[in-house]
Amino acid sequence: MLTDGFGREVTGVRISLTDRCNFDCVYCHNEGLGDTRGPMAPGDDEMSTDDVVRFLEVVEEFGVEKVKFTGGEPMLRQDLEEIVERTPDSMETSLTTNGTFLPGRAEALAEAGLDRVNVSQDAMDPEAFRELTKSGAYDDVIRGVEAALEAGLAPVKLNMVVFEATAGYVPQMVDHVAENEGLQLQLIEYMPELAGRPEWAIDIQRVHDWLAEKADRVERREMHDRKRYFVDGGMVEIVDPVGNEEFCANCHRVRVTHQGHLKGCLNRNDDLRPMGEMTRAEIREAFREVVANRVPYYGEYLVRDENDEWVVNEEYIGA
Hints:
- The protein is an alpha/beta fold.
- It has a single domain (about 10-315), classed as Alpha-Beta Barrel (TIM Barrel), CATH 3.20.20.
- Helix content is about 30%, strand content about 20%.
- It contains ten helices and 14 strands.
- Strands 7-8-9-6-5-4-3-2-1-10-11-12 form a twelve-stranded mixed sheet. Strands 13-14 form a two-stranded antiparallel ribbon.
- It is globular, with a radius of gyration of 19 Å.
- The model has no long low-confidence stretch (mean pLDDT about 95).
């Protein structure tokens, strides 16, 4: 297993299969690359099925244990089932999706070897959902979650980005997962450094405090130093990376863009590393290099100045 210069083992990879999406969410950052949604037809720059599988087979050599497929909307890839089926058996496989294509495909994905799924759902109200996603597919998402549960992909995590427009729906979402067996809620802190519009951000500590008061118990998850709150039988986890040095110190993932570039940090695009023609030798070389050059974003790449503001550490400018 490869370890970066800060002692962080790389145990997982997150692969964007496409930047295409049938939604147009107002907070989209497309895996840190910016909201680059283009034509809905597959582009020539997307990694092929064989490229994705070859990459996974190579990183398995380095002890990578988990892969999450993302996008864009990864289910726009018609070869998704084949990719999952050909993923090394040693790896846990998961998928982040908006859920609209899960009816009709969830069972096949489960049979192919998918272990679990995250479904983006930012509100229980169809009109609010339409405003946030610019899509009228609320009912499709609900059916998609049901299809995932029926296919045995439980627990299904509902991803909710928490910012000014969605914060008021948090109590309703917490009640929803408590009332529906097999569901969990993942509250994701809005990241203005990626999505822009800093005025939309809220103090995520308020959500922590509210959940702590309601929770029957609280657990700490080692990955990214996350907190899990158990409320009335439901589980709610908060992902709060903004300004969080502990979060970055516990990051064990490398990301792959849909074009086949390695990315050591979600928040950076100055560290993108192409894998050439994606031969096994080129993948190995690029993966080793990216892991060796990984830097915790908060606390190292960004540091506090004398005014307690985050500034770029000059050591990494142009690195």
